Structure to design on (495 residues):
């Protein structure tokens, strides 16, 4: 073996642009990197690692197969992902710049190494690890500076670095086998003809089984198991197609489906619905359908159909993404219903506590022939309204008074420590008296207020006591019977 010649051939082919179709690598780079970047931003949560961002790995795979002509498309796709998600022009440009630097660094490392020469070697997925870690170093360093992670622990820095490297490696592992099949050039990888990566021998069967089993077991017990099963199962399916063709795709699909079904049973046994894992089976089925088409594309006679099948693959991907979006919206709706139910229960409990305070006041009147103003003040202070009943404005007592006894009732109230006591109706209250000064008077519904009712009522419900008095003075002496709704509430409380 001539390492020097191999290195020269690697550098020449990895950096050679496609001259026959200049727009194709740009379009492929834009769509591939853009969709992956958008999906990463879509799935991103505050506690999510950047392993969902395959952007650098996908861009690296596209450049390795298509050459430097794909770099503008990679840059544009890396920008469009965050920009479409509303990250703004400046942050999106910064993210795209960091990711394109990582892609260029990984490509440069491949150019000077003779490793990337034979896809048939079992060790080639491992050989991408140094390239992924170098590219991930750029992304991890940018994240450390941009999010001030540098002030954190060394463990956190190492985690960020490995997460970026893992994302890059996953992107390359998933995209290179696909790119090989769809590439129009005869040599898909440096020194490796396309026909030599067609379906292989039965000796590759253990590798296919191992990839599928590892991809499935790695997601066991993880909260985002369906997503990880899809992310890790994708490279095993594509590599299975490259190594064993339709047979490999069928074997991988069956293994992943069996593991996913096991997840579903385990989830149900612990009280879960298993629906999310069940939806993963649809994902696997779509991937399997696409995988069954790939060996035919490698045939020289129908290689011209690669663009059509590529569009079909993107269509399946769009269908998959629609399923993910629908699933996310469904989970959001369920979460909203749970929050609304909790809020409703909290409001019911709060209202029950208010009713309990009123019942205690009723018991006080039932246990005494006469409750003085001083006794009511002591009672209300013992209730600790502010601490035990947040949001309540005050607690008062309204007594039924015959119209003929109204003068004597008012005189007794003034003699009991309230010299300014006087009976008044609801029509005399202003908005400021209600403690809602920011309320627009035009918004009030006064359809139930009828001054003519004042001459028809024989019994009044007069607010005799109200505490705390300083913020509820306007309610002292209020005749609740002067307004229909207040009168109905008072009569219901009396009964």
């Amino acid at each position: 073996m001539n390492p020097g010649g191999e290195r020269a051939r690697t550098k020449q082919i990895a950096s050679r642009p496609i001259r026959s179709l200049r727009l194709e690598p740009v379009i492929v780079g834009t769509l591939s990197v853009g969709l992956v970047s958008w999906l990463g931003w879509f799935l991103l949560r505050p506690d999510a690692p950047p392993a969902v961002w395959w952007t650098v790995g996908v861009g690296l795979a596209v450049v390795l197969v298509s050459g430097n002509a794909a770099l503008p498309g990679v840059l544009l796709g890396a920008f469009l992902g965050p920009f479409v998600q509303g990250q703004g022009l400046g942050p999106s440009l910064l993210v795209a710049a960091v990711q394109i630097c990582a892609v260029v660094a990984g490509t440069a490392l491949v150019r000077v190494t003779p490793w990337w020469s034979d896809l048939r070697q079992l060790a080639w997925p491992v050989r991408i690890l140094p390239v992924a870690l170098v590219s991930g170093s750029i992304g991890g360093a940018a994240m450390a500076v941009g999010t001030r992670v540098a002030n954190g622990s060394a463990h956190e820095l190492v985690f960020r670095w490995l997460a970026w490297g893992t994302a890059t490696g996953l992107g390359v592992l998933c995209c290179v086998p696909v790119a090989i099949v769809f590439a129009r050039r005869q040599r898909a990888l440096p020194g490796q003809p396309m026909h030599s990566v067609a379906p292989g021998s039965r000796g590759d069967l253990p590798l296919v089984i191992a990839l599928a089993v590892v991809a499935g077991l790695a997601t066991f017990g993880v909260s985002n198991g369906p997503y990880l099963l899809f992310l890790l199962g994708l490279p095993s399916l594509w590599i299975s197609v490259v190594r064993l063709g339709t047979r490999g795709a069928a074997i991988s699909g069956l293994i992943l489906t069996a593991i996913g079904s096991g997840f579903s049973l385990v989830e149900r046994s612990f009280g879960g619905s298993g629906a999310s894992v069940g939806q993963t089976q649809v994902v696997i089925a779509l991937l399997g359908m696409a995988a069954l088409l790939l060996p035919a594309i490698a045939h020289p006679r129908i290689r011209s159909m690669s663009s059509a099948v590529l569009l079909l693959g993107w269509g399946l991907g769009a269908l998959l993404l629609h399923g993910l979006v629908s699933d996310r919206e469904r989970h959001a709706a369920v979460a909203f219903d749970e929050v609304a139910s909790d809020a409703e229960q909290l409001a019911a409990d709060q209202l029950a506590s208010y009713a309990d305070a009123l019942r205690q006041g009723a018991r006080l009147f039932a246990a005494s022939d006469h409750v003085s103003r001083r006794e009511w003040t002591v009672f209300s202070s013992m209730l600790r309204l502010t601490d035990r009943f947040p949001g309540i404005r005050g607690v008062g007592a309204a007594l039924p008074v015959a119209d003929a006894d109204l003068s004597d009732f008012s005189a007794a109230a003034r003699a009991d420590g309230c010299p300014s006591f006087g009976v008044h109706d609801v029509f005399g209250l202003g908005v400021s008296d209600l403690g809602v000064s920011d309320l627009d008077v035009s918004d009030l519904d006064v359809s139930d207020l009828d001054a003519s009712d004042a001459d028809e009522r024989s019994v009044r419900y007069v607010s005799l006591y109200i505490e705390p008095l300083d913020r509820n003075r306007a309610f002292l002496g209020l005749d609740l019977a002067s307004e229909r709704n207040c009168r109905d509430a008072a009569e219901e409380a009396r009964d």
Q: What stands out?
A: Residues 1-197 form one domain.
